[in-house]
Amino acid sequence: MDAIETSKTHRLYLLLKERIVSGALRSGERLPSEPSLAATHALSRVTVRRALDGLSRDGLITRQPGAGTFVNAARTHAPLIADLSNMLTHLKAMGHATGVRLLSFDYVTPPPAIAEALNLKPGERTQWSVRVRSLDGVPFSHLSTHVPERIGSTYTADDLSSRPLLELLERSGIVADKADQTLSATLAGPDTAAALGVEIGSPLISLTRVVRGADGRGIEHLSALYRPDMHSFHMEMLRSGDGANRHWRPSTRVVPETTSTPSSQRTPAPRSDRAGPSSARRRA
C-alpha cells in the first residue's frame, strides 16, 4: 500500500511541477485547495499533501496559512554548469565553491566491476566514500567514490570533509592523465532521495567516471548522481578538418574556475580555439 501511495504522490507531484515549469500555472497563481485537488485526481488528501510538500521543498509553491497555496515559479537556485570536455579542470574549483557532507568513509573490497575498471590486483581494497555536495545549503549531487587503498590511505575522513578529492590525490603525488566518463539518467532510490531532498523516483543525471594515471592504472572510480534542476552539463563543439574529413570535435578551451558557480554569477569563458597544447598548459 505504501508503494502505491508513493507512486500516486510522485505522479501528482510531477504533473503539477510540469505545469508550473511550463508556465501553464503562472507565478503567483493560487492552486486549488487540497480537497479540490483530491477530488479532481481521485486521490486522498494525504497523498495530495505529500505532493504539495515536495513542491514546497523545491521552492515551486508557497503556502500561506489562511490564504492558500500559490505558485512560485521563480527559480531559487541557478544550476551549476559543468563543461564535459574539460571536466577535470573545474573539479577543484567546484569543490571549493560548494559545501560537502561526508556520509561514509571506509576501506572495502570493491564490487568486481569497479575492481576491474581500476585494474586492481586480486584482493586489493579501496577507500570508499559517499559525499553529498550542496550549494547555499541545497544538496545537488550524491558522490560515491572508490580509490585504491594505496592512494586512499594518504588522506583522512577529515581531509575529505574539507577539501576536494582531486586536490587530495594531487597532494599525494598522483597526477590524473585521462578519464573515461559516461552520462545517463536514472531514478532516485530511497537513500539517494533522502540525501538530495527529492521524492523517491525523481529523475537524476547519472555520471560514471574512471580517472587514470599516466601508467594507465585507475586512481578513482566515481558514481555520481545529480539533481537536474540544480546541475547541467555543457560541451562546446568546433568544426575541424577539410572536405570529406570535416567533423565535429570538443573545444579545447580552458575552463575558468567561475564555471562551477551559479550562472547568474558566471563570467564568459575566454575562447582559446587558436591556443596550442603549450598555451593550454600555461593557462591551466
What is the count of β-strands? 12
Would you tell me which CATH topology of the largest domain applies?
A: Chorismate lyase
Q: Taking strands numbered 1, 2, ... along the chain, how are they ordered across the largest sheet?
A: 4-5-6-9-8-7
Measured on Cα atoms, how large is the radius of gyration? 22 Å
Order of helices and strands: HHHEEEHEHEEHHHEHEEEEEH
Name the helicity range: 25-40%
Structural write-up:
- By secondary structure, the chain is an alpha+beta fold.
- It folds into two domains: 2-71, Arc Repressor Mutant, subunit A (Orthogonal Bundle), CATH 1.10.10.10; 80-234, Chorismate lyase-like (Chorismate lyase), CATH 3.40.1410.10.
- Helices cover 30% and strands 30% of the residues.
- It is built from ten helices and twelve strands.
- It has helices at residues 2-22, 34-41, 45-57, 91-97, 112-117, 149-152, 157-162, 165-171, 190-196, 277-283; strands at 61-64, 68-71, 80-83, 99-108, 126-135, 138-148, 178-187, 203-212, 218-226, 231-234, 237-240, 247-250.
- The strands form four sheets. The protein has a six-stranded antiparallel beta sheet.
- A hairpin with a 3-residue loop joins β1 (61-64) and β2 (68-71).
- It is globular, with a radius of gyration of 22 Å.
- The chain starts with a helix and ends with a helix.
